[in-house]
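Q: I'm writing a short explainer about Acyl-CoA dehydrogenase family protein for a general audience and would like to include a description of its predicted shape. Could you first generate the structure from this sequence?
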Amino acid sequence: MLEASLRKTMLSSSGPTLDAALTDLGWAEMLTEVPELAIPLYFRLLGETGSHASILVDVVLNATGNTIGDTVELPLPYAGNAWVVWDRISPESLDPTLGGLPLRREEEGYPIRVAEARVAVGWWLVGSARAMLALARQHALDRTQFGKPIAAFQAVRHRLAETLVAIEGAEATLTLPGANNPDLTALLAKAAAGKAALTAAKHCQQVLGGIGFTEEHALQHHVKRVLVLDGLLGSSRELTRRAGAGLRARGSVPRLAQL
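A: Of course. Here's the predicted structure. Afterward I'll give you a sentence or two in plain language.
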């Protein structure tokens, strides 16, 4: 019931309007009381619907003991040692290079706790990846070539299958319990989600062909979004290297899951 209501709301609104609607639907209470349920649900749906809301800021605020909904500007690390701020005050001033999100580039920032936010962005990336896969799958069923749907061709099936495997693997990483090492678990989960979303963007673009590049098709919106989300709080490439360097320095690998 809640998921259906959230999906409908996100499909009909975005930005500040969606912020207000999510507040009415009890976002703050869910984040405070059951973050392990709220974060995967809300952020996955943001990805699947292609909408955006400033609830990522709330995740950071809640993790650091601040008031949810505050308009304080928190610097968020971005790929390439850069910094961005999610602008809650003037969200209409969008940087066209930042995926349609109300992010503003900053010259410098300061360290903040980002483990929970990385998991949230990871679910956002997974939701976007699933949206791209759904678009490519439907196109493969509808588009005919040589008298049959292109979904019948092995090359197309392989790309769709590889995308699904990447998404499922990322989801499995995002659901790992982080009690033993929450920072490392969140870092690896964000890296896996970013890689899965980039894999989805590449393969789904190949399946859709030229139509996927056009402004009229929904795929390009998701591709732009995941390119930015992958860079937010550290790109998949940067986080993977950071994790590797940390493990080499430590000389051992902590157990992240009971198999």
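A: For your explainer, you could say: Strands lie at 75-78, 82-86, 103-106, 144-145, 148-149.
Q: Perfect, that's easy to follow.
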